[in-house]
Amino acid sequence: MIRASRSRLAPLAVALGCGLLAACAVGPDYQRPSMATPAQFKQAEGWSAATPADTRSKGDWWTSYGDPQLDALVDELNRSNQTVAQYEAQYRQALALVRSSRGALFPSVDFSASKNRAAQGSGSSGSSLSSASSGIRDTYNTQLGVSWELDLWGRLRRTLEANQGSAQASLADWANMRLSLQSQLVQNYLQLRVLDEQKRLLQATVDTYQRSLTLTQNQYRAGVSGPDAVAQAQTQLKSTQADLIDLTWQRAQFENAIAVLMGKAPADFSLAESQAIPGLPSIPVGLPSQLLERRPDIAAAERSVMAANAGIGVAKAAYFPDLSLSMSGGYSSSSFANWVSLPNRYWSVGPSLAMTLFDAGQRSAEVQRNVAVYDQTVAQYRQTVLDGLREVEDYLAQLKTYQDEAVVREQALAAARESLRLTTNQYRAGLIGYLDVVTTQATALSNERSALNVLQGRLVASVNLIVALGGGWQAPPAE
């Protein structure tokens, strides 16, 4: 009785032992690389860096500019941009690879059925045709097989872990590319709207200069002004008209870039001029510390480290033997009529052990290569974090500088407008020459365009800051 109990417990012990062995996995378990980061940013109080959280919802950050047409353009980009479609397809490939490596953990079942017709000669040259024909035989085979590789050393699990890390990195790459293209479109759109305003400014200036030229010509005919004043007025008018023409091709370039980002041919897209420039988003004084965590490029770099770490385990598992179990069974007969019958059955079952005994250092070299790949990805991750910190600092400083400059520019513009008004009145009263008017008008126009350039710089810098923060400065929802 005791022997019978032991015989029944033996298979259970073997199965339990295999399960315990399968629980181990060679190679290092993944830990996020350490990264020394500052407690806060220089340019914004209350900032600190933390753990990447790129999967958190960021919202439609471009809506902060309050332009419905811009919202529609970005929505079209999300649907139709071909580069985004490429990265989405790459992510689906990575997911398929994860499913494939997960399936390798389970047994596989195969089925086959065949018919073979073979002949063997009698070896006698005088044999009759009938006797030769009697050597032809038909064989019918059907087989069902099951095979399973026992993942004793974790090679398959490390492979799955590596593919999962690569898939997560691919997802982050997709998000990073989408964010980058959204940024390009928003910047192009904002700069195009500033150009629209510059065109209106230059057109109004051309009209003003045309009236000044007419006035100067009338004064010349009346003998009040000389021919030099007329020449100066014409020069000023033509130069401004040339600047206005130059803006036309600049606007066309931005419009064509927006069309391609939306997945359209430039000939099939046009953007009408607008009478207003989108508003500059209001940047909060105290930015929450979780924002930099959402940068997809940082997440992609960190998950590449995860995949490289698992690759070390895959390489180390090659030192150990592969154990697989296989079982097959079926029917084989020379007659189709009684093919599937008990006398024609056959079966086989057994383990298979395979191990490389000598490879002249190939496995060792592969482990060293994977360790070097891991070290490379760690360095890339840390550099990406440093680049992210620098970009946020740069754009915060740039926005602050532009804000201070905008105040001074507005003051200079107000003074230039007042000076132009007084100079024009003095010229009409005959108190000063036209050269003074030309100089004052040129100064006023320069200040008008400088103020628009500062506004354009502030808008572009705000987009860059949003991208540097991973897509907005709204606080992430509470979990």
Automatic annotation (TrEMBL):
Q: Check the record and name the Pfam families matching this protein.
A: OEP
Q: Note the InterPro entries from the entry.
A: MdtP/NodT-like, OMP_efflux
Signal peptide residue numbers = 1-25
Q: Which UniProt keywords apply?
A: Cell outer membrane, Coiled coil, Lipoprotein, Membrane, Palmitate, Signal, Transmembrane, Transmembrane beta strand
Cite the SUPFAM superfamilies for this sequence: Outer membrane efflux proteins (OEP)
Q: Where in the cell is it found?
A: Cell outer membrane
Query: Which intervals of the chain form a coiled coil?
Result: 70-97
Q: How does it sit in the membrane?
A: Lipid-anchor
Provide the primary localization. membrane
Q: Please report which protein family the annotation says this sequence is part of.
A: Belongs to the outer membrane factor (OMF) (TC 1.B.17) family.
**Protein name (record):** Efflux transporter outer membrane subunit
Organism expressing this protein natively:
Pseudomonas typographi
Q: What is the lineage of its organism?
A: Bacteria, Pseudomonadati, Pseudomonadota, Gammaproteobacteria, Pseudomonadales
